[in-house]
Amino acid sequence: MVCLGNICRSPMAQGAMEAAAGRYGLKLTVDSAGTSGFHRGESPDQRAILCMSGHGIDISAQRARQLQHNDFREFDIIFVMDRSNLRDVINMCPDDKQTAEKIIMLRGFSALEKDRIVPDPYYGKKHDFEKVYQLVTEAAEYHVQKWLSR
Length: 150
Ligand code: 4NP
Fold this sequence. Notes:
Radius of gyration: 14 Å
Bound molecules: 4-nitrophenyl phosphate
Low-confidence stretches: none
Structural class: mainly alpha
Order of helices and strands: EHEHHEHHEH
Number of helices: 6
Strand order of the largest sheet: 1-2
Oligomer: single chain
Mean pLDDT: 98
Distance between the termini: 22 Å
Strand content: 5-15%
Shape: globular
């Protein structure tokens, strides 16, 4: 799961994906990273931790890190939150088709254009974090169901 700072959206998306996998007994390795290293080593934003704990998911042990080249080898899918993340991750990606195909917008499946991104809540309020929770949870459920149906 990749966003800009790795302290709001992607830690929440990691928590939501781990929870969704757990609901269906699906074994997944989920991690998150930022395109930037601004918050390297930090815990998730307190508002993100609080929002997720309100939904029974503990993300407090996560620590921010920057996306690294090795991640493109290590992971099968690199989910991004918005188009700016998509551009940045494509720019970092090794130049081969198979690897480039790993990069996916987490909510790219949405029929509604406006719901294809997870908006950055950093300058927002509690409500904006709740919206992120809903968007990443729905997406996690969607992808887990899709993998299970294969
Ligand atoms: P995130 O949110 O990308 O969802 O972790 C942000 C966190 C920090 C900053 C921007 C976005 N920042 O500019 O410090």
